[in-house]
Amino acid sequence: MPQLPFSQACENNKGHILLQLQRLLAQREQVLEIGSGTGQHATWFAAHLPHLRWQPTDMQENLGVLRPRCNEYQGENLLPPLALDVRARPWPIPVLADTLFTANSLHIMPWGAVEELFAELAARAAPETLLVYGPFNYAGRYTSESNARFDQWLAEQSAHSAIRDFEQVDALARAAGFQLREDNAMPANNRLLVWGRD
Ligand SMILES: C[S@@+](CC[C@H](N)C(=O)[O-])C[C@H]1O[C@@H](n2cnc3c(N)ncnc32)[C@H](O)[C@@H]1O
């Protein structure tokens, strides 16, 4: 069997994120994931949170990476991956999820795409909960030397990629009607940010 697409970072962080999701998503039903990558998060979380229906998505050109692992999933609660570029509004997503989850995507996509993501949320009644995992800067500063090095590496990969300022993302979330509920410190200088709206 050919090896499935694999991310070591994803493998390292999925258990830590799951511990938080078990608490945060106990009363939730459906998650829309943005930028699902290899599908390691989608398949792991769907398997360990069987009360949820998990909708993985990614850009059309990444579906070839995402589908193989999702195709191997044994269970009914992982929906087939959908193509979604957050800039292509309105999003062609047929079902309304109560929760949006995204990991390590805001620092990859251009800032304009981050703005489009929140603009789309502002235009929709759902989701009510927004979970964003990844590195963030606070008050214009890196939270660690390793994040500073990572940001340098990102800049070398793409002029559009950069660790985002928490305050700027929070401002977009507030403009979309969300309030910050939690800012959880996670291993390897990452955060799990939780916004909600009533
Ligand atoms: C570093 S990977 C993270 C993948 C996975 N979430 C993880 O944590 O391993 C960044 C992901 O963001 C996706 N992405 C980048 N720009 C995007 C956009 N405009 N709309 C949707 N997804 C995007 C990429 O295709 C990629 O899957």
Automatic annotation (TrEMBL):
It comes from the Bacteria. This is DUF938 domain-containing protein. SUPFAM superfamilies: S-adenosyl-L-methionine-dependent methyltransferases (SSF53335). Coiled coil: none annotated. Gene3D superfamilies: Vaccinia Virus protein VP39. The lineage of its organism: Bacteria, Pseudomonadati, Pseudomonadota, Gammaproteobacteria, Cellvibrionales. It comes from Pseudohalioglobus sediminis. InterPro entries: DUF938, SAM-dependent_MTases_sf. It holds the Pfam family DUF938.
